[in-house]
Amino acid sequence: MSDSAVKRTIDAIWRIESAKLIAGLTRMVRDVGLAEDLAQDALIVAMERWPAAGIPDNPGAWLMTTAKRRAIDLMRRSKVRERKYEELGRSSELYTEDDIDDALDGEVGDDLLRLIFMTCHPVLSQDARVALTLRLLGGLATDEIARAFFVAESTIAQRIVRAKRTLNASRVEFEVPAGDELKERLSTVLEVIYLMFNEGYTATSGGSWIRPLLCQEALRLGRVLAEIAPSEPEVHGLVALMEIQSSRFKTRVNAAGEPVLLMDQNRAQWDRLLIRRGLAALDRAQKLGWPLGPYALQAAISACHARARTAAETDWPRIAALYEALSRVMPSPVVELNRAVAISMAFGPAFGLQLVDALASEQALKDYHLLPSVRGDLLFKLERFGEAREQFERAASMTRNDKERGLLLRRAAECAVKEAGGGEPE
User: In terms of domain of life, where is this protein from (predicted)?
Assistant: First the structure.
């Protein structure tokens, strides 16, 4: 395997293993900032050794073992940490190399969920909680988090640094809380799991359109949370949304890994079991609380697509109405953009274009590539091919995902052919 291929493989392994690694190390050292540093040290060692020695059969266990040894060395050198080292020695059976996988896999209320609740502690601001958790559990880079929240990268970096210091100084426990404390942190935990799933569903950057393992981990955490908080309607709403969205994974990309848009997907290949699970979770959310919260409303929108046997049978007026309700409980320019799409599908592209044009001045959407992408699609449907091409090219220049850029440039090429009066592009 070439060095570049090894590097790509290491990057992929890191995206898969980093959250478990940081969670397991946090359990050991009780310092989330130190845990992240130790994980990064293990990654550096892997990048130095694996190109020559080869990638181990269990790279996650290798990384954990390497990081664990460094943690023990650090504890030995630090008198301040001597007590923690002694505690680790008394319970070392949890961290023997033979049992590394068991120690990381956990159970209900596992290390990953404990880490989410730790980083969502009320000692941190809401923005800091979300940024830190996405960094540690979602594996998102600082600039990716900044783009998700439409703020400067330096702002996110400062939030993350301050958050880790605050958690350490406040000696926040590594645990899943109960009672009122659980409810107090629940909304942020739900938001983080939701954002983790979204990053997996449509990757912000890189060479892949989707990151299924990140979605699977978010869905697993959501299911665990539903067991811990069974009476919370929004927990079931989020699980419903993730179950239904996950049902489409087989059809979201073609054999070449290129994106397949919702209206072009083969619905016969959607996973009916996940859809049934999602609809059941949505039913539980509806029975537990009314009016519906933002996650349950989004699940209801996804359910409209799931119930339509073909794209033509989609109940777009109902989807538009659900987006209207969502805009009231979770107002945002992105929700308005989605509502414009639904209205265009229900009542024609001209109506949708009016709404999209009204969003052009929104500062939050200034660098959001889906704004020109949606506008290009509406202009294409109105046969304004020259304007549509410009919008697709603009969107392509703004996205950081390679597969999405390719899709947008193909749409732009199609517009150029139409504009010239030709047939379909090759």
Answer: Bacteria
What pLDDT tens digit does each residue of the chain (426 aa) get?
Answer: 677 788 888 887 887 788 888 888 888 888 888 888 899 999 999 998 898 888 888 988 999 999 888 888 777 666 544 555 455 454 444 334 443 344 334 333 478 888 888 888 889 988 898 888 888 877 778 887 887 677 889 999 999 999 999 998 998 888 888 888 888 888 888 988 998 898 888 877 777 778 887 888 889 889 988 988 899 999 999 999 999 999 999 999 998 888 999 999 999 999 999 999 999 999 999 999 778 999 999 999 999 999 999 999 999 999 999 999 999 999 999 999 999 999 999 999 999 999 999 999 998 898 899 999 999 999 999 999 999 999 999 999 999 889 999 999 999 999 999 988 765 555
Q: How far apart are CA 195 and CA 233, in angstroms?
A: 18
Cross-strand bridge partners of residue 401 = 206
Give the angle subtended at the CA of 227 by the CAs of 167 and 134, to the nearest 5°: 35
Tokens 């050292």 locate to 29
Phi, psi at 116, each rounded to 5°: -60, -45
Burial class (CB in 10 A: 0-12, 13-18, 19+), 227: exposed
> What are the residues facing 206 on neighbouring strands?
401
Residues 365, 397, 8, 59, Cα dihedral to 10°: 10
Q: How far apart are CA 120 and CA 186, in angstroms?
A: 9
pTM value? 0.74
As given in the structure block, the two tokens for residue 131 are 């940024």
- d(C-alpha 355, C-alpha 123), whole Å: 40
